[in-house]
Amino acid sequence: MEKIWYVYILQCQDGSYYTGVTNDLDKRMKAHASGKGSKCVRRKGFSHLIATKACKDKSEACKAEYWIKKMPRNKKLNAFRE
């Protein structure tokens, strides 16, 4: 059975957004919260998860992450509502 991949946006303590990809959302959020996630979130501090989107495979999730990272901040959350 294939794992579900997710693209997610979390908010850092400074108010900035971080977009990432994972196949184990709980484990990844625990890593971010404990300071063992990405360097960016370690530096800025983890606040909370604000959006997730399930994808059929890693490739789809990575493509979604790429496009979301290119979007202006005010449009990022709209990508999860489509």
If you had to describe this structure to a student in words, what would you say it looks like?
The chain is α+β, with helices and mostly antiparallel strands and 82 residues long. The chain has one domain: 3-Layer(aba) Sandwich (GIY-YIG endonuclease), CATH 3.40.1440. Helices cover 39% and strands 29% of the residues. Strands 2-1-3 form a 3-stranded antiparallel β-sheet. A hairpin with a 4-residue loop joins strand 1 and strand 2. The longest helix is centred in the last third of the chain and has 13 residues. It is globular, with a radius of gyration of 12 Å.
Highlighted features:
alpha+beta; 82 residues; three-stranded antiparallel sheet; GIY-YIG endonuclease; single chain
Briefly say what this structure is.
With 82 residues, the protein is an alpha+beta fold. The protein is built from 4 helices and 3 strands.
Biggest sheet, spatial arrangement of strands: 2-1-3
Order of helices and strands: EEHHEHH
Query: Can you name the CATH architecture?
Result: 3-Layer(aba) Sandwich
Q: Any low-confidence stretches, pLDDT <50, length ≥5?
A: none
Q: Which CATH C-level class is it?
A: Alpha Beta
Which quaternary structure do these chains form? Answer: single chain
Give the mean pLDDT: 93
Q: Do you know the CATH topology?
A: GIY-YIG endonuclease
| β-sheet strand percentage | 25-35%
- The radius of gyration over CA amounts to 12 Å
Count of distinct structural domains = 1
The CATH homologous superfamily name equals GIY-YIG endonuclease
Report the total helices.
Answer: 4
